[in-house]
Amino acid sequence: QVQLVESGGGSVQSGGSLRLSCVGSGVTAANYCLGWFRRAPGREREGLVAIAPAGTTTYVESVKGRFTISQDIPKNTIYLQMNSLKREDTAMYYCAAAPMSRWARTCPADFSYYGQGTQVTVSS
């Protein structure tokens, strides 16, 4: 059974930084795409970044250069370092997992499993 638990959200001023964490059980980096999504009030869920089993990462344009995904495989944890936060980054952030071939270099648009989310609020 796959479980994903996020933490690290909070309130921060514009220009600040936060690091989100996601601990997974029932998933391994070798067989899953792992990624981060967000949903802002009144908007559709948006994929931000994903890391494929082969190690390739893909970022959405709006967070390139500001957000960085990383993983600690022994701890079964992925992180999202968010710098230069803007008010429009305010949203519920979710980590997600999708089962893939270990040789996969790209990830699907929609993932199979999502965590419960952690709220990020950026104020000016």
Helix-strand blueprint:
Elements: E1 3-7, E2 10-13, E3 18-25, E4 32-39, E5 46-51, E6 57-59, E7 67-72, E8 77-82, E9 91-99, E10 113-114, E11 118-123
Parallel strand pairs: 2-11
Antiparallel strand pairs: 1-3, 3-8, 4-5, 4-9, 5-6, 7-8, 9-10, 9-11
User: What general outline do the C-alpha atoms trace?
Assistant: globular
Radius of gyration equals 14 Å
Distance between the termini: 40 Å
Multimeric organization: single chain
Largest sheet: number of strands, sense, barrel closure: 7 strands, mixed
Q: Bin the strand percentage.
A: over 45%
Task: List unreliable stretches of 5+ residues.
Answer: none
Helical residues, percent: under 10%
| Helix-strand pattern | EEEEEEEEEEE
Instruction: Please tally the helical runs, counting DSSP H or I stretches of 4 or more residues.
Output: 0
Number of strands: 11
Please tell me the overall pLDDT: 96
Secondary structural class: mainly beta
